[in-house]
Amino acid sequence: DIYGRSGERKYGCRKRDILNLKIRLTLPKQFSWGDPFNDENFEENVDDQKDCGSCYSISSVYSLERRFEILFWKKYKKKVNMPRLSHQSILSCSPYNQGCDGGYPFLVGKHMYEYGIIPEQYMHYENNDYKNCIMDMGNYNHINKQNRNIKEIYYVSDYNYINGCYECTNEYEMMNEIILNGPIVAAINATSELLNYYNIEDKNVVYDILPKDTHQVCDVPNKGFNGWQQTNHAINIVGWGEQIINKDKMKNDDTNNNNNDNNHKLVKYWIIRNTWGKNWGYKGYLKFQRGINLAGIESQAVYIDPDFSRGYPKNILQSDPLQ
User: Exposed, middle or buried, 120 (CB in 10 Å: 0-12/13-18/19+)?
Assistant: First the structure.
């Protein structure tokens, strides 16, 4: 019970332990697919959604970009520098989400599975959802014939909530998915406290503030489900770690941690990539307390797998490997 005195639970339902012990024993204490905490030379263009509610699009598309690069190498030994894919095409074209009024990473996966996604050069991000869609969406729109000749289309082969369904996710399944296949998308209840984390210079800061008045509902009878959790923002998780922190710097002091002494605490964290630009957090990234479902981060994580059997990636694999 992470909320202790308040009597609240970390999930809407009381979750039984369904974790695979073998997975827990084989996962490293630290892992990342790239971040500024573990690499002093790390530089990346972290997108800023600005005043458009496009976090779900930006985070989902980033996950797909990175997974294409990772799995091109892991599966086919091809080092491919992915082009930036178009967040705007999701905002302007997707029939499954609500443009700048928000959406769901799961449904972005559905969109990219059915219709694909094009590089950013064809549809640049414009911080709105009324830019005309140039993708061929079948019965959903009518476009000029020349736009049907766009050959650089990237597709998704599979997408789902980690562990198989909404409310099934857990910390170790998320870690296993990340280390095997690349960054994932997660939802959190982003409160105004997060707005205080711009231009962080201390790389050791771990966000651990419990949302106030958070809402949870145990809405399913099945044992082992998380229950509904209030969330309003999508981010990427690229890795994880743990570190010893002075308790004076922690807002959430879980004294049940066996690694505590009087002044210090062992804290586990996720490495998250936000959609609020490079000036937020530390170069756009932040350490976010792990293992307590903080702000619902471990309730509804999504994976989005790249498809190498169709679209432009298929052409890359069929090209001369020496080129």
Answer: middle
Tell me which residues are annotated as active site.
55, 233, 274
Q: What CATH class is the domain 31-36+46-253+260-318?
A: alpha beta
State the Cα–Cα distance between residues 179 and 168, nearest whole angstrom: 19
Look at residue 3 in the predicted model and tell me its pLDDT.
Answer: 34
β-strand partners of 156? 306
CB count within 10 Å of CB 223 equals 10
Task: State percent of the chain over pLDDT 70.
Answer: 81
- Tokens 């979750």 belong to 15
Distance CA(292)–CA(226), nearest Å, equals 12
Contact at 8 Å (CB) between 249 and 243? no
CB atoms within 10 A of CB 260: 15
Question: In the chain, helix, strand, coil percent, each to 5?
Answer: 30, 20, 55
Domain ranges for the chain, please list them. 31-36+46-253+260-318
What pLDDT does 46 receive? 96
